[in-house]
């Protein structure tokens, strides 16, 4: 006697409805991850091209030109590279008053994230505070006009290890990214206070963030490494993020501000 039964039409409809609901949540999240990954890859690609181009012209900076930059990209990448999201790159090259190359690549999709230059960030080249942006002497602040910036691993041959107090305070920043292999270890007090940042990815190398480092921004997404020591009011008038971070065991990951609370993804 055969007792095997197939799915009824009702059961199949229920399964399809469940799958549709799951897809409605999963697909936007997946697309968001793809978009974020493409933007980060675009930033890193542009940063690497600028760094390698400037390195190739050490000792012959006067020969820098837009066409030379484009030819360099073609010779080293086989063709003019494109953004993974389909954006087109445009190249800008000039010489500063000190004879150093100022080079930048803009993307038609991801804007014109500006790579911080040594001229915009005085910092010590020796001593215990070597490589701390803005420490001086004398103490200085970000002097550039760009509001979407990339902070490189190395500036003028010196590894960037910290960002001094109030270096980027009140500068109208809308986005900040760090080179993927950044060696930044400390972000000092009020370093990014009172800007327009909505998300931040802290380099895994960072071990200490001082008081009010990101105070006065509307940040709703934070990606951070493990075991970071945070002082008071780093991201706002309270320590809600620090509490959520410590409650998770100070674990690395991405945290979202949802329904008035910080939650780890």
From TrEMBL:
It comes from Acetobacterium wieringae. The chain crosses the membrane at residues 12-34. This is Leucine-rich repeat protein. The keyword Transmembrane helix applies. Keywords: Membrane, Transmembrane, Transmembrane helix. Pfam families: LRR_5, N_methyl. The keyword Membrane applies.
């Amino acid at each position: 006697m055969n007792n095997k039964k197939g799915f009824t039409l009702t059961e199949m409809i229920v399964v399809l409805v469940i799958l549709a609901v799951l897809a409605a949540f999963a697909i936007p999240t997946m697309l968001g991850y793809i978009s974020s990954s493409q933007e980060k890859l675009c930033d890193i690609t542009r940063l690497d091209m600028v760094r390698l181009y400037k390195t190739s012209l050490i000792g012959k900076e006067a020969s820098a030109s837009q066409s030379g930059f484009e030819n360099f990209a073609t010779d080293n990448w086989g063709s003019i590279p494109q953004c993974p999201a389909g954006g087109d790159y445009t190249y800008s090259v000039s010489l500063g008053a000190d004879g150093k190359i100022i080079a930048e690549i803009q993307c038609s999709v991801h804007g014109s994230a500006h790579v911080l230059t040594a001229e915009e960030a005085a910092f010590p080249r020796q001593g215990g505070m070597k490589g701390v942006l803005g420490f001086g002497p004398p103490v200085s602040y970000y002097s550039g006009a760009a509001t979407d910036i990339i902070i490189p691993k190395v500036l003028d041959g010196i590894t960037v290890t910290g960002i001094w107090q109030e270096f980027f305070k009140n500068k109208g920043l809308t986005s900040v990214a760090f080179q993927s292999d950044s060696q930044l270890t400390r972000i000092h007090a009020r370093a990014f206070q009172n800007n327009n940042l909505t998300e931040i990815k802290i380099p895994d190398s960072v071990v200490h963030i001082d008081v009010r480092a990101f105070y006065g921004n509307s940040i709703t997404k934070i990606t951070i490494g493990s075991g970071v020591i945070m002082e008071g009011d780093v991201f706002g008038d309270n320590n809600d993020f620090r509490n959520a971070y410590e409650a998770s065991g100070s674990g690395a990951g991405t945290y979202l501000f949802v329904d008035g609370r910080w939650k780890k993804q």
